Amino acid sequence: MPPVPFAVCSMCRKQLYVGERIYRCSVSTCNSGKVKLVFCNTGCWDAHLPTARHRSAYALEEFARRD
Ligand SMILES: [Zn+2]
Ligand SMILES: [Zn+2]
């Protein structure tokens, strides 16, 4: 089975595949609407924080899966 593309990292644009470990931002506005942010590691999520100006946030670890 070839790897199934899932998304690209919102920060570094690395290609992510279904079944890989990914990180999401805990802030709901980063996971709703047109822009659903996804990160390849916590470093990329960290880099998202200064631009997003969240008051409190954490990274949610999950596995990429198709809906
Ligand atoms: Zn990344
Ligand atoms: Zn965020």
Summarize the helices and strands and which ones pair or pack.
Blueprint: E1 5-8, E2 15-17, E3 21-25, H1 42-52, E4 59-63
Antiparallel strand pairs: 1-2, 3-4
Bound molecules: zinc ion (2 copies).
One zinc ion binds next to loops.
Any overview of this molecule?
The longest helix is centred in the last third of the chain and has 11 residues. The mean pLDDT is 94. Strand 1 and strand 2 form a beta hairpin. With 67 residues, the chain is of the alpha+beta class. The strands form two sheets. Strands 1-2 form a two-stranded antiparallel sheet. It has one domain. The structure holds zinc ion (ZN) (2 copies).
List keywords for this structure.
25% strand, two-stranded antiparallel ribbon, globular, alpha+beta, binds zinc ion, 67 residues, 1 helix, 16% helix
How far apart are the first and last residues' alpha carbons, in Å? 18 Å
> Which ranges are low-confidence, i.e. pLDDT below 50, for 5 or more consecutive residues?
none
What structural class is derived from the secondary structure elements? Answer: alpha+beta
Describe the largest sheet: 2 strands, antiparallel
The average pLDDT is 94
- Shape, per Cα inertia axes: globular
Q: What is the total tally of β strands?
A: 4
Radius of gyration: 12 Å
Number of helices: 1
Strands of the widest sheet, in order across it, are 1-2
Helix content: 10-25%
Could you spell the SSE succession in H and E letters?
Answer: EEEHE
**Which cofactors or ions or other ligands sit in this model?**
zinc ion
